[in-house]
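User: Can you write out an input/output pair for a complex, sequences first and structure second?

Assistant: Here is one pair. Inputs:
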Amino acid sequence: MSASRLEAFLAKIYVDENSRERFLADPRGEAAKAGLSEPEIEALEKIDRAGLILTAQSLQKKRQRLTGK
Amino acid sequence: MKFKNDDNNQIRDRVGLGWRRELALGILSHLDRIDVVEVIADDLFDAPRGERRALRTLSAQTAVVLHGVSLGLASSVPVETKLLEKTARLCEEVTPDYWSEHLAFVRGGGVEIGHLTAPPRTDATIEGASANLELARKVVGSAPLVENIATLIDPPGSDYDEIDWVNRIIYSAPCDLLLDLHNLHANATNFGYDAMEFLIGLPAERITAVHLAGGKWVEALGERRLLDDHLHDVPDAIYKLLSELAAMAPHSLTVVLERDGAYPPIEVLLRQLDRAREALAEGRSRRFELIEKEAA
C-alpha cells in the first residue's frame, strides 16, 4: 500500500513545481504528510537533489515538446 | 565463455530505425538499407484509419515492430486494462514481429508524469511489474519485450541495484529484454558503475532487441549528468557495447536507432545503421572464433 503512495508522491514532486519546492524545503514533513513509512521518509530525506531537479527539468521539456507549449 | 544452443548459420541480425513522420520519406526511400522499422504504438492508438492503413502497407514492405511508452508496467499499481486493449487491437491489426514496453512508471496518485520514470527498485515494483507483464501477455496475446530506461535520478527508496532489479523482473516474468544501450551507458556514467560489467551481468540469451541513441550533458547544483535525449548521434561507446553484446548473444538481434528530433539528413542516420552493422559483425566474428576454438 505504501509502495503506491511513494510512487504517487514521486510523481507529484517530479511534475508539480510547488510540491517540489515544499518538499525540498521540508522533506520529512512533506513525506510524513503523504503518509509514507519511516524508511521511505528517511530515503526521501537523502534524495539525490541534483537528480530531482534535472528529472523535473527534463520531464517539463518533454511535456512541452509533446504539447507544443 | 561457453555458448549453448548455437547455430551460427541461423544468426541474422537486423538493423533499423524508429518511425517518425519527419523521417518517413527518408525511410521509405531507403528500405533496402533498413531491415526493420519500429513504430510508437501510442501514436496510433487513436490515429485515423488512413494512418493505420499506411502502417499495414509499411508492414507488407518491411519488418515492423511496435513500441509502447505509456503503460507504466514497472509499478506497484496495476496497469490500465484499456491501454492494454488498445495495444492488443493494434497488434492484431499490424501483426508486428514483437511489441515492447519500458520498465518504468508513468503515473501515480492520479498524476500523469508524461514520460518514463524510474520507480523505486523494490520487491513491490518487481512484483507489480511481474503481475503487470502477466496481465499484458493475457490481454495482448503475447508478452512484450521489456526495456531498461535511463534515469537522471537515483530512484529514492530503492533496495536493489539496477541490474539486480532488472534481472529479478525478467526472471519472474515471461519477457525478454530490449536492451537500450544508451540508457545503460547514461545510467552507468551518471551513477558510477561499469557499463560493460552491467552488460555481462545480464542473461545474454534473454536479450533479443537493442536500442541505440545519443544524448547530451546537463547540469544542476554543480553536478553533471548524461541525458538520453535521442537528439544526438550515437556515441562510440555504444557501438563498443553493441559489439560486445553480439559476441555474447546466442541468437539474432534486432537493433533499432531512435531519433526524436534535430533530424539530420537521412544519410547521416543510415551511416549510423552501417556502423551498427559493423559493430555486430565484429562481435559475431569474435563469437564464432571462440566457438570454433572451443570445438577444436
